[in-house]
Amino acid sequence: xxxxxxxxxxxxxxxxxxxxxxxxxxxxxxxxxxxxxxxxxxxxxxxxxxxxxxxxxxxxxxxxxxxxxxxxxxxxxxxxxxxxxxxxxxxxxxxxxxxxxxxxxxxxxxxxxxxxxxxxxxxxxxxxxxxxxxxxxxxxxxxxxxxxxxxxxxxxxxxxxxxxxxxxxxxxxxxxxxxxxxxxxxxxxxxxxxx
Amino acid sequence: xxxxxxxxxxxxxxxxxxxxxxxxxxxxxxxxxxxxxxxxxxxxxxxxxxxxxxxxxxxxxxxxxxxxxxxxxxxxxxxxxxxxxxxxxxxxxxxxxxxxxxxxxxxxxxxxxxxxxxxxxxxxxxxxxxxxxxxxxxxxxxxxxxxxxxxxxxxxxxxxxxxxxxxxxxxxxxxxxxxxxxxxxxxxxxxxxxxxxxxxxxxxxxxxxxxxxxxxxxxxxxxxxxxxxxxxxxxxxxxxxxxxxxxxxxxxxxxxxxxxxxxxxxxxxxxxxxxxxxxxxxxxxxxxxxxxxxxxxxxxxxxxxxxxxxxxxxxxxxxxxxxxxxxxxxxxxxx
Lengths: 195, 335
Prior knowledge:
Chain B: Residues 10-60 form the Ig-like domain. By secondary structure, chain A is mainly alpha-helical. Chain A has helices at 7-41, 69-98, 103-129, 150-179, and one strand spanning 61-62.
């Protein structure tokens, strides 16, 4: 494996970051469309507030600009692995609830699940490039679902998709930080002071 | 004793001359002018249905001694109506600002109090020195789904009013317009204009938070704009300009992922390069010159101009050759 700071590794990192940024952009666009469809099909109010739900990775972060590259990658990877499991659960619930009556929503969910899986793999590649390697997935996965009624499950799904949309934006920003020349995985860039 | 007295427009105001008895002989003045006795009820000054012109300094003097017994500064005004509040982030991800104004003047001093709540956390909005009706907040968190709730309360001596706005972190992101927009002709290219600009200086980190741009342009003689969206770079070459026509060009900016478009930049004007006209000496040379010059009046092949104002940008297919020939003929007349 090339050293993390070698020219070839740098080029490979920038290439992976560029593709990851495009993937994140497409993913966000599809998640936003899926959110609209989900709200409509599930009969929800688009402006409904959803409390933070256990097991749903929260995109909100303090001191974002001070994070190192490795921190960014690890947090992103943990999030997308969790989303992968959450979306799989949502897909199963959706099929049980609506069956074939709403195949379009099921297909949209499946498409986003595929993108999330692809993005998680992408992040693993970036971590391998950092000579760090991705953490193992043993024991990972969403916590067992508490017994939720149908409406609570719908709200939970809304929360999952909203946070995923935020993560997609955050991930693009994280990858842009990572792609900056001269920044290793351990460096924390800082924003220039505004005039 | 002296004090300020605030009264609402249209109110009836009664002023007592300090501790003087009702039946004491007094003289009232307003802004140095004696007030007619018809406005007095004993020693009380009665002002009915006050208006803004009655604001001013009022003095009450004892009748015979002209000792000053009472003075007050009357300020006639209005309680505040619901203020107008807006919040915007033009320096994402550093923070955002909120600014406000009153939809109608109160004519008396007002104080403003703003509260910003994010989830359960109350945030400090630091007031700007200038303009005074603005304050700014630094983001403590990014990428949050929790909405911000901003409440502005305006208070004066006659009442108070408030308004609340609620928004997502992403929704209020709106950069300032691009700066230093420059448009130049391209030598030896009669249908090109080279446009360049800079990121707004208030946008703190365009590398991590890149902007995309929207450019619009039209010849001054037409009303319809042509638009180009550009996902990167801060320059663009217009390739379908009408030769010899002055153009007006503007650029707007938006974060690549979130928020809304900026206002349009300051407009710049430019005219594509044109060939220098040759001097006319012989008839043969006139004919040659005429033929060369008419080519500059041919319509661009990507533009349809059969209908007035129906100018279509790049991608249009139809070419109105008949119109082109007519224009060429007129071109001869205007050389």
